[in-house]
Amino acid sequence: MTAHTLDDQRVLLERATYGDIASQGLAPDEMHVVFGVGSGKIVCLPLLPPQLPPSRTEM
Fold first, then answer.
1. Percent of the chain that is helix, strand, coil (3-state, to 5)
2. Cystine design at 54: which of 1, 6, 38, 58 (Cβ 3.0–4.6 Å)?
3. Going residue by residue through the chain (59 aa), what tens digit of pLDDT does each one get?
4. Is 19 in contact with 11 (CB distance < 8 Å)?
5. Element (H, E) at 23
6. Between the CA of residue 55 and those of 48, 49, 50, 52, 58, what are the distances in Å?
């Protein structure tokens, strides 16, 4: 199992770096996905990319 962005443009959790994904679930705040990966590591990824405040030129 691998984790990709929705448009499949990028692998979020590479096996070579994190190991195999053993489990996954929604965090209590429902804003992050939590993955259990090899060697007992836990990786938490936001469901949406952080929203940057508009720049002064966009206001």
1. 15, 35, 50
2. 58
3. 556 666 666 676 777 777 787 888 888 887 878 888 776 777 777 776 656 555 555 44
4. no
5. strand 21-26
6. 20, 17, 15, 8, 5
